[in-house]
Predict the structure.
Amino acid sequence: MYAIVDIETTGGKFNEEGITEIAIHKFDGHTVVDQFITLVNPEREIQEFVVKLTGINSKMLVNAPKFHEIAKRIIEITKDCFIVAHNANFDYRILKTEYKRLGYNYLRDTICTVALSKKLIPEAPSHSLGKLCKTLGIPMTDRHRANGDALATVQLFKLLLEKDTDKRILQQNVTYFDSRTITEKLNSLIDKAPEVSGVFYLHNGDGKILFMGRGKNIKKEINKIFIKTSSRAQKIQEKVTNFTYEATGNELLTRLKYYTELDVLNPKYNLRKPKKNISNINFQHGNMVLIDQGRTIEENSVILIENDQVTGYGFTNLALQENKLDILKNIITPIENKLMAKNIIKNYLNRNKVHEIIRF
């Protein structure tokens, strides 16, 4: 038996989301034999982008049952079933989180129709639910609503079962609850992440950088990666074992480090955007030091520009004057891609100010 599930949530921090709607269709491989569909009062705010996506707002949920009021029904309808969902990691994690809040350990084996469809229909141009259903001629109504998506997943799963004639691929794609440690791992990493401005690197078990990110708050940025449901994000979540980071203290240095290092490191799961035209237009002043906030209150970040080229960047507690330039040259980290660095800085300075500029 299969319990085909789709869940809509409030959005928000990893493992702090709440359910706003759930649809479950109990499927015996041929027909739906039972179903449970309801809005849910999540007892928390719904993020605005989710409201726009699903159409579900807080007013609609005032009189809806809270999760503890439907928890028993969900346990009953999913008993002795595989949880089947389009991105099963997400839906199963949300259910486990809700039950954990109630002090109950909810355990089910899962099957992901994203993974199945990639193996059984590899030629599909996309494996997102909407585009996949369009490719396969499966009708969809109420997109991004629990029952609409669940009904489409029922039809998709039925087709996948037919394609997997010997059920070999199906069996290979069952994820058993007793080996699931992804949630605990991601929670642990988020707990350790700092709330500082800078760049961060997600590593696999061999230390290789899988993904490089940046932001004003590293903790929030890592959390965003861990709550995404795209196939790329799922691969990162599965493979990541650790992270490292470098604080920068300000937006300009964050941008500078991110884009110049991204070219060198070339992490596997960073999306590659087409490079814009890079110009070699000179700075207004060809010799200067850009000074901004550093990683701590008493520290400054510095970027050295000589002869219209970005020499490098660094951090110092010194009160910088022209006669300290020799010291500055000793502490900076050189930048190899000087043309890219020049464009990053010029674009930033066209829209923003730095704390101080010393010209020499």
Notes: The mean pLDDT is 88. The CA atoms of residues 198 and 247 lie 4 Å apart. The longest helix spans residues 146-163. DSSP finds 13 helices and 14 strands in the chain.
